[in-house]
Amino acid sequence: MSTPTVVRVWESEFAVYRKIWHSHVLLAFVQPLLYLVGMGLGVGALIDVNTDSSASLDGLAYFEFLAPALLATTAMISAGQASLWQVLDGFFWGNRYRAMAATPLTPNDVASGLTLWHATRTLIGVAGVAAVLVLFDDTRSWGLLLAVPAAVLTGLAFALPITAWSSTRYGGGSFPTIIRFGLLPMFLFGGAFFPITELPGWLQPVAYVTPLWHGIELCRGAVIDSVSAGNVAVHLAVLGAYIFTGWAACRIMFARRLAP
Amino acid sequence: MAAAAGFTIADRNGRGAVGVGPVRSIDVPNAVITARDLRKEFGDFVAVDGIDFDVAPGESFGFLGPNGAGKTSTMRMIGCVSPITSGTLRIFDLDPERDGSAIRARMGVVPQADQLDSELTVVENLIIYGRYFDIPRAECRRRAAELLEFVQLAERATERVDPLSGGMKRRLTIARSLMSEPDLLLLDEPTTGLDPQARHILWDRLYRLKQRGVTLVLTTHYMDEAEQLCDRLVVMDGGRIVAEGSPRGLIEQHATREVLELRLHRDTVGDVAGQADRDAAALATIDGIGDRQEVLPDRVLIYAHDGEAALAEVHGRGVEPVGSLVRRSSLEDVFLRLTGRTLVD
User: Fold this and answer.
1) A96 vs B105, B117, B180: nearest CB
2) Which residue from B45, B216, B278, B312 puts its CA 20 to 30 A from B54's CA?
3) What is the pTM of this model?
4) B131 vs A12: CB contact, 8 Å cut-off?
5) Structural domains of chain B sorted by starting position, each given as residue range(s) with its CATH number in brackets
6) The dihedral of CA A123, A176, A26, B157: what is its sign?
7) Pairing of strands B184-188, B107-110
8) What digits encode the pLDDT tens for the residues B167-180?
9) Helix or strand run (H / E) with residue B89
């Protein structure tokens, strides 16, 4: 009974993760907590006195509006961290993916194993956020059990396309740009801190094509039980498209890089 | 098997020395690797330009050549991590394109640059690598302990990899490549960048592996390394094999027994043209001494059976070089003869 090849790759990623798990988990736990207290409770106190604002938040308190979205944003940030320098390192500096390719493992096995690992790592980070949400009465919900897998899908929708990009690079020069002009604007304007209906009209379609907005809608809908089945299907389809395209690109790029 | 061993012995006796004409394939029974008209192209660039070779079981086979000769491209094709462009390549009588995983399962690879996981400890590096081959964890631990003894790193087992010296990392990389107990070990420039002591330790370990029957295939641009380790080698240049034989056989075929190295002048500052004239005059005077002469920018090599006699002849003709050295011919001389260039520029 042989171990599936993806699991062998996963084991290797996990062995390295065990050395640094504290910083990842701490970040996943502490960062959302700070946003929840600072923005959710602090800024929320100012927002909630205005009845108009409550209407534009679908009748939610600001804290309830923000909290579930942090599952998706944390998934995005955690996935971004794991898909840039860490992936380049596997091909370029530390060359651990090259080492794997010299064994019975194929480039496909490496790409698929890494996908499994991305899902695991995102799950660990998102579970940290979920633990924070359980602490507060307003967000303690069985819906979290659905929101967590939705957030993992959101993470993969970022991790796989970014991993495919990183696997074509010979340096990390483009990575800060991806963070500053890709991930950070999505974090700020992707529907986590305010509804995207508040965005200028021309900017709203941009939000519709980003994976983050779909992830946020799923997580928020699950926690406060407010999303229609039709919308769930659309959100899942968009995330699925990012995941599938990213995965297919990873397989092609890994083969090019590891077996030229 | 007996035939293969017989071949190797015949080879040690200088089989290469009797070969004439272009280097063609050598048919080895039960060959571990067989390559015929093997080519590798990257776009317009031809890295390997149609080479033929066989590697016998238990043999230690080397690719010698300067940077860019096509050694690493060849090694990557043998390692089944680079598809061949054309020709035939069989390893363990399997096809790398179809059976890459099965071939790699029986092969150890020591890459040019260490690919160790710097976050992990020495022993963890071995265990994780063993797991790629699906060796059970307990067995991985057993083999890791044994291999760390073998490469003299047992006392560093639980330390992180980062602070290890270059030689230690190389030894750990070799230990890692042995986790799967391979029949064939590929080593791409195994001692490049190591100090002399570290190189000798490594050579000693590789020699022991060879004694255990592991087939070694290595690339190097060090002549001493090739002479130390290889039963048989091919000299590559510009993607082609330009000579093939045992180290001694190649030297006997392509060089004389001894070489006289002459330094005609000290480094001159200023009067460069005048020095060039004096050198030309000296070269004209010593012309014809020895079997052959090779003029390099800083010295003249005179190939002769008896180097001391050649030096006496130089003095006899009234030329007083500022420095002279008589040494035995090496593979460097073979390479110079075959390509007109030195190996390490």
Assistant:
1) B117
2) B45
3) 0.85
4) yes
5) 2-251 (3.40.50.300), 256-328 (3.30.70)
6) positive
7) parallel
8) 899 999 999 999 99
9) strand B86-91
